[in-house]
Structure formats: C-alpha cells, structure tokens
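$ run holo --ligand "oxaloacetate ion" --emit tokens
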Amino acid sequence: MERKTLAIVGCGKLASIIADALNANLLPEYQLIATYSRSIEKAQNIANKVNNESQKDSPCKACNSLEELLASEANYIIEAASPDSMRTLALPALKNGSSIVTLSIGAFADEEFYEEVKRTALANNARVHLVSGAIGGFDVMRTAALMGNCTATFDTEKGPNSLKRYSVYDESLQTEKRKVFEGNAKEAIALFPNSVNVSVAASLASVGPEKMKVSVTSTPGYIGDNHRIEVKNEQVHAVIDVYSSTAQIAGWSVVNTLRNIVSPIVF
Ligand SMILES: NC(=O)C1=CN([C@@H]2O[C@H](COP(=O)(O)OP(=O)(O)OC[C@H]3O[C@@H](n4cnc5c(N)ncnc54)[C@H](OP(=O)(O)O)[C@@H]3O)[C@@H](O)[C@H]2O)C=CC1
Ligand SMILES: O=C([O-])CC(=O)C(=O)O
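-- output --
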C-alpha cells in the first residue's frame, strides 16, 4: 500500500499526540516525512519520536525552514503552530498541491484571506480540513445555518492562569469570577490569538466571524476549558457543550480527521 505523506508545522504538545498516534499504528495509511518548528530542536524531537519507533525504515526529516518543509510536497501538511503561521504557510502549501489539516482556524477570521485560500485550494486540487479541535458539532451548525435565519453564540469558561499572556489579565482574576471579553469571533481571536480558534471555527460553520457573539469568562481555580455553542433558527435549537481538562482533545481531533480522510465511511 502506497502511504500518504504527512508533514507537521509546529512541533509542540498537540504535534506530539499525532506522532504518538503514528507510533501506535492508529494512522497506518500515513507516513510522516517532514517536521518544522520555530526551533529545530522541537522539530527534531517529533521526527525522532517516529524515527525511533514506527518509521525506522523510512525516516522523517526535521527541516531548518518552512521552505524546506514545503519542498517535501507532502500530501497533507498538519498545522499545529499558530494562526500567524497558518497565514504564512497556507497559500504556498496549496500552490504546491499539498492539502492542509489545521488547528489554527483563527487565521480564517480574515474573510479576504479565507476566500483566497478557498480559490487557491480549488485551483490546485487541494483541500483545507478544519479540525473539530476542542469542540464539535460542525455538521449541525452548518445544517442549521443552511436552513436560514440562524443566530449563534459562543461562551467559553477558562481559568485565569490560561489568560496570563493576554492584556485582559490582572491578579484579581485569581480570586474573582469575571467576564473578561464580549464581542464577535473576529475581535476574540485578535485578542486571544492562541486560545479561541474554536470560536472562529464555529462561526465559519454557522453565521460567520462578525456575527458570532463570543464571551470569555475567567473563573478562579478553573482547570481546563468549557466551550458552549448555541445555534438557533426558527425550528432548531442546538447546544454543543464541550468540557475538556486539557487541550489534548484538539490533537486527537487531528488524528480523527486524518482517519476520516482515508475511511470508506465518513462521519
Ligand atoms: N482548534 C482548536 O481546538 C485548538 C487549536 N489550537 C492551536 O494549535 C496550536 C498548537 O497548540 P499546542 O501544540 O498546544 O501549542 P504549543 O505551544 O505546545 O506548540 C506550538 C508549537 O508551534 C511552534 N510555533 C509557533 N509559531 C510558529 C511558527 N510561526 N512557525 C513554526 N513553528 C511555530 C512552537 O515552536 P517552538 O517551540 O519550536 O518555538 C511550538 O513548539 C495553538 O497555537 C493554537 O493555535 C490549540 C488548541 C485547540
Ligand atoms: O483548547 C481550547 O480549549 C481551545 C483553544 O485553545 C483554541 O481554540 O485555540
């Protein structure tokens, strides 16, 4: 069997889950051929993981630059870095004919970029797969939106420590529960670039980034994230509520998407 080739951009916690899944033979139809990260050590760590186990005979290369990774012309590039990185790699990857499986869906809050990505994918016979990540239910969101007159809200609860890197943080959040953000999905991803990709994903599946009403609440001592999405039209009221104590669900959702891509039965 000719295996499909994979490359990973962004070799952190979620990329590690994908390498472990390859080693656990959960992705037998795929071979990892290239990795790239901001630091070569991280790229080498992920390559070593598979080279020491499942790919002793077909080693994966740790690349020194994004250009080197793109030149590998992998069938699928997994983006597990950041929305900025997704913006940099999407068009050149698609022009090479590589499809993309992305976690940093926040990059698509920019409508012009989203449209250009769609056109480029179509022109090059490639596809962009938006993974379910830390949420799910894109099917019901898309269906409800298709029926017309749809509204949607996205409410996230997080612990204050996960907000420390953002401007909304102050020490009072350690003791006081507070709504730290209210706005739309476009504004949310601009303020929290690595933490609300899911809100942009849900908006693209329903009412779009500008119409999706988003709130972020900080709760003292809260472990993990809870994302509650409500989609309504005249006939449907759908609630998708996902709690996860870690972000690992997002890495596993990439594994699930890759399995779906090659499956005779598609969910
Ligand atoms: N859709 C969803 O549900 C979710 C999406 N995400 C997205 O997935 C991304 C990865 O998450 P996670 O693995 O937990 O994060 P980590 O911080 O553990 O890993 C991200 C890795 O990407 C690398 N990186 C960052 N920027 C660049 C860049 N411009 N070019 C190349 N490499 C880069 C970092 O490099 P280095 O360490 O080498 O410096 C780091 O190793 C998040 O940033 C977020 O955008 C995350 C959770 C859920
Ligand atoms: O892990 C989560 O709960 C969601 C997240 O970081 C993101 O959407 O970027």
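-- notes --
The pocket of NDP (ligand 1) is lined by residues 9-15, 37-39, 42, 80-85, 103-105, 133-134, 194, 197-198, 201, 247, 250 (CB under 6 Å).
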